[in-house]
């Protein structure tokens, strides 16, 4: 350890005294410097940090999941079609064209026989009879073209049963009466399958949302009570959940659906099927909520809310449930395909919705017999592909939301 010489010590003290005289400390008599809040950070000499919230972190991570974005885009399109099916469908669902029974899909072209580019059009189709198989055969006449128009007047309808209109997304000119645009072909009565799929999307897609919403309510209430209070209440609720889960799902659906009266109107039957699907599907959500409540009920913020005098219901709904809301959303997204498949399967077996109701399951009934599958495969492929694409889109969306629900995970 070195010591300073007397001369060095004196020189050091003189240097400190000179620095204090050059920069005197602030006193009360001195006016404080004015800080401009609106000045840029560079002028104030400060660094401002932006703290992102949980939902913004979820969005940043979700948008990196390309398949989830694709699934979300597909679902948005499908739900818009279901919501505005009267406008999107070119014909009424029960409108039938006798000369187009079991007609194949109508090709929409943009190039004619010579290779010239045109606006979208169809060729005139003439029906003939195959004398060997006695089947109707539709032959295109390349000499006559019918342009396909957008926002064309057609069959009058009531949008959502409230607003009268007659504008359809696409179709032929109103003066053309002997030709129709059948994008996905026609059924055995000559009804446009594409129009019926659009109307069926409203029921099949909405029944999943309504059913999952009811399952969510039951799952949060019963699962929350089970996990928050514990004890005998938890034991009773868990035994009920285990009893329901031990019963095979499809036979349980079939037994409950068979108990619904066959003469019920469409709306009552719709809600009956929805309630059946919800009563069976709430157990998984209840297990998730119970597990979260068991881990959160001893947290500091729950204890603080209890000491502040908050009621039990307020603690559950305002403090505990929002803390894992992102996980609930991801679980719900993955549960909706099960509800849609349940309704489709029951309707396909004749135990769910029945005609005149229109759903994808009801439309699949047309493809049950071998004759339809051999002569008109589009009757099966159209509804089946719609269900498959919807289920895959929900699964992709659910995977993306599940990964984004924990934005801090690597």
Strand content: 5-15%
Could you tell me the radius of gyration in angstroms?
34 Å
What percent of residues adopt helix (DSSP H or I)? Answer: 55-70%
Topology pattern, helix = H, strand = E: HHHHHEEEEEHHHHHHHHHH
Question: How is this structure best described in words?
Answer:
Strands 1-2-3 form a 3-stranded antiparallel sheet, with no helix packed on it. Strands 4-5 form a two-stranded antiparallel sheet. The radius of gyration is 34 Å and the shape is globular. It is 56% helix and 12% strand. With 410 residues, the chain is mainly alpha-helical. Helix 7 packs across helix 9 (266-296).
Concise overview:
The protein contains 15 helices and five strands.
Helix-strand layout with pairing:
Layout (H helix, E strand, L loop, with lengths): L5 H17 L18 H4 L9 H9 L3 H18 L1 H4 L20 E3 L5 E13 L6 E12 L1 E11 L3 E9 L21 H37 L1 H16 L2 H10 L7 H31 L3 H8 L4 H12 L1 H24 L11 H5 L5 H6 L2 H27 L6
Antiparallel strand pairs: 1-2, 2-3, 4-5
Characteristics of this structure?
3-stranded antiparallel sheet; globular; 410 residues; single chain; mainly alpha
């Amino acid at each position: 350890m070195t010591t300073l010489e007397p001369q060095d010590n004196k020189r050091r003290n003189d240097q400190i005294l000179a620095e204090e005289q050059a920069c005197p400390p602030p006193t009360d008599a001195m006016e404080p410097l004015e800080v401009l809040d609106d000045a840029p950070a560079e002028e104030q000499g400060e660094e401002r940090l932006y703290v992102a919230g949980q939902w913004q972190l979820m969005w940043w991570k979700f948008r990196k999941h390309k398949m989830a974005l694709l699934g979300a885009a597909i679902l948005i399109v499908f739900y818009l079609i279901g919501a505005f099916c009267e406008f999107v469908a070119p014909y009424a669902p029960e409108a039938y064209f006798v000369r187009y029974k079991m007609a194949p899909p109508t090709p929409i072209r943009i190039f004619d026989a010579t290779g010239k580019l045109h606006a979208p059009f169809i060729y005139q189709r003439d029906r003939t009879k195959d004398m060997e198989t006695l089947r109707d055969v539709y032959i295109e006449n390349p000499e006559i073209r019918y342009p396909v128009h957008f926002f064309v007047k057609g069959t009058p309808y009531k949008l959502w049963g409230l607003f009268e209109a007659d504008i359809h997304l696409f179709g032929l000119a109103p003066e053309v009466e002997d030709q129709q645009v059948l994008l996905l072909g026609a059924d055995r009565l000559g009804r446009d399958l594409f129009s019926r799929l659009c109307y069926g999307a409203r029921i099949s897609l909405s029944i999943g949302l309504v059913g999952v919403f009811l399952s969510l309510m039951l799952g949060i209430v019963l699962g929350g009570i089970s996990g928050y209070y514990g004890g005998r209440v938890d034991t009773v609720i868990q035994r009920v959940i285990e009893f329901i889960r031990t019963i095979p799902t499809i036979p349980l659906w079939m037994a409950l659906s068979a108990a619904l009266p066959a003469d019920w109107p469409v709306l009552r039957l719709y809600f009956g099927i929805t309630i059946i699907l919800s009563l069976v599907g709430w157990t998984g959500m209840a297990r998730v909520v119970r597990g979260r409540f068991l881990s959160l009920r001893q947290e500091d913020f729950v204890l603080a809310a209890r000491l502040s005098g908050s009621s039990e219901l307020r603690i559950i709904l305002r403090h505990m449930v929002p803390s894992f809301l992102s996980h609930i959303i991801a679980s719900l997204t993955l549960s909706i395909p099960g509800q849609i498949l349940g309704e489709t399967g029951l309707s396909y077996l004749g135990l769910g919705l029945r005609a005149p109701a229109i759903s994808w399951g009801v439309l699949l009934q047309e493809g049950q017999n071998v004759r339809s599958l051999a002569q008109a495969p589009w009757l099966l492929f159209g509804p089946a592909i719609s269900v498959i694409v919807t289920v895959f889109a929900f699964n992709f969306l659910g995977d993306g939301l599940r990964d984004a629900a924990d934005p801090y995970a690597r």
